[in-house]
Amino acid sequence: MKTKVDIVFVNGRIYTMVSEGDVVDALCVKDGKILYTGSKDIAMTTYESEKVVDLEGRTMLPGMGDSHLHFFAYCQTQTTVDLGDCKSKEEVIERLMKKADGTPKGQWIKATNFDETKWTGDNHRLPTKEDLNRISEDHPIFMKRVCLHTAIVNSLALEVAGIGNDYVYGPGGVVELSGDGEPNGVLREQATLIFDELIPDPAKIPEIKEKIMKSALAEASSCGLTTIHTFAADIWKYTEDFDDYLKLDRNQELPLRVVIYLDTLFDKPYLTLKQMQDPFRKVSYGGYKLFTDGSLGSRSAKLFSPYTDDPKTDGILVQTQNELNEKMLRAYQMGLQPAIHSIGDQSLDFVLNAIEFTLEKSRQEGMTKEEQATRDPFRIIHAQMATDEMVERMKKLPVVLDIQPIFLQTDMHWVGDRIGPERAAYSYRWNTYQKEGLILAAGTDSPVESISPWLNLHAAVARKDKSLLPHDGFQPEEKMSVYDALCMFTKNLHYATGQDSFLGTLEKGKFADLIVIDRDVFKIPVDEIRDITVEETYLAGRKVYKKKSGIVEREGKNESQ
């Protein structure tokens, strides 16, 4: 007698991702889990289902994941003026003038995603309040850089915030002053919090919030994302509320898994083995997010020596070594996984010092090495600059590196000028990292970059900009293979949260998170990777997205897109 299952997939190129080149042509799902992978003949003679899907030679992969994004922040950007595609400062000013013309006097104008390094002409200098004053002197204006670490405001915004001559923000942030002590409108790091507190956020209105979240989740599902690791950032008011996702899930409107990281200490709920093995449990807590520095784009990433193109600064540390040590140790003692933002080389040195301190101090207080080995690894987010010595240190530590390959599409055009060729040579070393045995996961840092995993995957493999240049790739020796790069979005991502026993590969007993794509990612020319289209997305064996018919199916419901 045949075994009854919920769904059988046959006649596909089903890459299990267990090992490179491991491919089968049939897969069976029962109760949200994979029951069988192997040959069509065995599947059809051993299992039966009312639903048999003929893949017709199409490619199936494990569901893709994003290891680091700010999902609610992405939702918030839907209520602002998006400057991401602006190609010049004048285009920014023109777009914001248009917004001001339709906005009552006195109301805030908020814009996001500007990146002066992409502008033609004046692209080496940040705008100042004088530039924004040209837009309007009747509206307070606030615009945040794409990296999130720098903001620009006009004179009226400074006045509303009470920021006057010789203003000093204090540790962790900077309000830039001109030679006469007058604020120039540029704010860096935690100083941007001043305006995040002041400006009303329409995305916090429940009805608007739910509508935007549903739309953004549908977009993520259509890209093939079945898991996101989303990070709160209180300094920017990027909140993440467990109950928001739980409500959507209870209403059968959550098409992916959500792992939430907070930047405040919290008591992480205990999960039983039964709960962890439930393929229909979608929302969970991750760990504790910590910051050390800013970004290279805003010259706030902390370096050992000054920036090559601005010798007046070597970046910003947002906390001291002792503060980082104590926060990380406290989180570790509470059973939380520390996840630390680090971009500059001195910042990474601080982070490694803190991890080494935390492990040693915990052992001194009675934790065994065996117990430490069972804990989720420390997550180093970005890890953008690492000398050979730092790589050797990381190899000795239980770490996962959360990298953002898509950053390179823009950074390659200015990083050599910004930090000099010697430091640029030990930046963006993804292939070196993985060849040295370090485990990498990949994310987009959305809303900093597009939520699409395929653009990110292409950047890891090709190392080219949006115009597909340079022809051989930037630092071509650091290109990753398609398989190694895909591992970052599948099994490595779930290793980072200790869920690799249930997710990340297509093998018996694991959750049936699957995607069907329109071409074989392992056989197409590398530059076609960015054009991959997801045709179907399944979560725990249930179809949550289907492209061909234009219908999104969620938990048995059919809804027009």
Give a description of the structure:
By secondary structure, this protein is of the alpha/beta class. It has 2 domains: 66-70 and 207-542, TIM Barrel, CATH 3.20.20; 80-198, Diaminopimelate Epimerase, Chain A, domain 1 (Roll). Helix content is 29%, strand content 24%. The protein contains 19 helices and 26 strands. Strands 2, 3, 4, 6, 7, 22, 23 and 24 form an 8-stranded mixed beta sheet that branches. An 8-stranded parallel beta sheet has the order 8-15-16-17-18-19-20-21. α9 links the parallel β16 (257-262) and β17 (283-291).
Q: Which radius of gyration do the C-alpha atoms yield?
A: 24 Å
Give the count of structural domains: 2
What name does the CATH topology of the largest domain carry? TIM Barrel
Poorly predicted residue ranges: 550-561
Please identify which CATH superfamily of the largest domain we are dealing with: Metal-dependent hydrolases
* CATH architecture annotation of the largest domain: Alpha-Beta Barrel
Number of strands: 26
CATH class placement of the largest domain: Alpha Beta
Distance between the first and last residues' Cα = 41 Å
Helix % is 25-40%
- What fraction of the residues are assigned to beta strands by DSSP? 15-25%
Total number of helices? 19
Taking the sheet with the most strands, its summary is: 8 strands, mixed
Mean pLDDT: 93
By helix and strand content, what is the structural category?
A: alpha/beta
Shape: globular
